[in-house]
Specification:
- It is a single chain.
- This protein is mostly helical and about 475 residues long.
- It contains 18 helices and no strands.
- The termini are far apart.
Length: about 475
């Protein structure tokens, strides 16, 4: 790697450490460590929510999908934008207004007065996020490996250490501040790369002519798309309602009056960044027409290396790592918060002082990271296949649960438990049935899982309420 690229990259890592130290000095109690003391401004909330959501998918996965398949993959981006907007519009303010909780499991406990619901939701968070973090560590290790010529194990430890240090020190403030920096890096990168690439190939008309000569169907947004296929791709947007690392951003804003501004900032960032990612992959088809890439997901990384001088390439490399790290740190912190507040404080040490809880939170970050590191040690480990369920798993188990708990007063504890379990189980079962050909059509498991979870919540809650009413009428006067 060129010295200039390495220098730029190291400067970026130093800035992350400095932000972690500053946040450490402002972290005094558990509320500070878990939610930044609920004093985050609209800009921080809007940008950090977007950065923690998108991860490496925005710079690697989405451009890769467009490069490999053409414009028909745009429906995923459309669904995500719609889902994110609806989440901001309906859930964000309501969640901030109606809860003083520090975590999603605590919110559910307060809403339904159920220790069992708190325990199960904590376990679901810990399980899914451990796999999520592990997947991110693998992505980061591969990036370090290919960029610096390191072996996989060394690259894995390097990436993990960087993330642990600033998350351990500064908690939610450090994660949110670094997410803002990472969001801005990602945004600039996704503006610069497609513009420069397009100019290199002679403009829009030259690009479309080249793609049309390669395969005209790649210009068609409806290529191989049925109505069910479009619904399946757009259904990714349903996942937003149940992602704990996004929902906690809403809980951390300093006032609900800040939410509309945060929504505008967050959605503007998302729309511009997603459009840049789509364009990068699409333009890449024309740029690499004479020398196609073996790995479609490296289209952004390859363009950044061949088109830019080493200083800019270092900045773009930092942007890719930002996309990966901004999600891992948020997931680490949510897992740590669940273990600290919803397990340690709630069940083991209810009278623990704030200093003790903050340090338990920090140690929990290390524990979760070590477990995830163990899973990531072998990048081909079959357990990593479960990572594919995580977005749908969270969206289906927590999504309907959060929506109904905020907007339907008749929802009961048993309805909440049943809905969460049915949502999570359906994701796994539906995917397996599709693989084995028992379900003869392809439909993203989020759709049936979200639907079944919602139905179960309503049915169980109404039956339980009806049973209570019947027993009340049966009592002797």
């Amino acid at each position: 790697m060129h010295t200039a690229t390495l220098t730029t990259f190291i400067i970026y890592l130093i800035v992350l450490f400095i932000l972690g130290i500053i946040a450490y000095r402002q972290t005094h109690n558990l509320a500070d460590y878990m939610l930044g003391g609920r004093r985050l401004g609209s800009s921080v909330v809007g940008l950090s929510a977007g950065a923690s959501d998108m991860s490496g998918w925005l710079l690697l996965g989405l451009p890769g999908a467009l490069y490999a398949n053409g414009l028909n993959q745009i429906w995923i981006a459309v669904g995500l934008i719609i889902g994110a907007y609806l989440n901001w519009l309906f859930v964000a303010s309501r969640l901030r207004t109606e809860t003083a909780a520090l975590t999603i499991p605590e919110f559910l406990h307060n809403r339904f007065h159920s220790k069992l619901l708190r325990i199960i939701s904590t376990l679901v968070i810990f399980l899914f996020f451990t796999f999520y973090v592990s997947s991110g560590l693998v992505s980061g290790a591969i990036l370090f490996e290919s960029s610096f010529g390191l072996n996989y194990t060394t690259a894995l430890w390097m990436g993990t250490t960087v993330i642990i240090v600033y998350t351990f020190l500064g908690g939610f403030l450090a994660v949110s501040w670094t997410d803002v920096l990472q969001a801005l890096l990602m945004l600039l990168a996704l503006i610069i790369v497609p513009i420069v690439t397009l100019s290199q190939i002679g403009g829009w008309e030259a690009m479309t002519t080249t793609i049309n000569n390669i395969d005209p169907t790649q210009l068609d947004v409806f290529k191989d798309m049925s109505l069910l296929s479009i619904i399946s791709l757009m259904a990714w947007g349903l996942g937003y309602f149940g992602q704990p690392h996004i929902l906690v951003r809403f809980m951390a804003i300093k006032s609900v009056q800040e939410m509309p501004k945060a929504r505008r900032i967050g959605m503007s960032w998302m729309i511009i960044s997603t459009a840049g990612a789509v364009l990068t992959g699409f333009i890449g088809i024309a740029y690499f027409a004479d020398n196609p890439l073996d790995n479609s997901e490296k289209v952004f990384l390859t363009l950044s290396q061949v088109l830019f001088n080493p200083w800019v390439a270092g900045f773009l490399l930092a942007a890719i790592l930002s996309a990966i790290m901004s999600t891992i740190d948020s997931q680490l912190l949510v897992s740590s918060s669940a273990l600290t507040g919803d397990f340690y404080q709630a069940h083991l040490r209810p009278n623990a002082n704030q200093t003790e809880l903050v340090w338990v939170g920090r140690l929990s970050v290390i524990v979760v990271a070590i477990v995830a590191l163990a899973l990531a040690y072998n990048p081909d480990n079959t357990i990593m296949d479960l990572v594919g369920y995580a977005w749908a798993g969270f969206g289906s188990s927590f999504g309907p649960l959060i929506i109904f708990s905020l907007f339907w007063s008749r929802m009961t504890r048993n309805g909440a438990l049943a809905g969460m379990i049915v949502g999570a189980v359906t994701v796994v079962v539906w995917e397996r049935l599709t693989v084995f050909g028992i379900i003869p059509f392809s439909l993203y498991e989020m759709v049936p899982a979200f639907l079944f979870s919602s139905i179960v919540i309503v049915v169980v809650s109404l039956l339980e309420t009806l049973g209570v009413q019947r027993r009340a009428r049966a009592r002797p006067r």
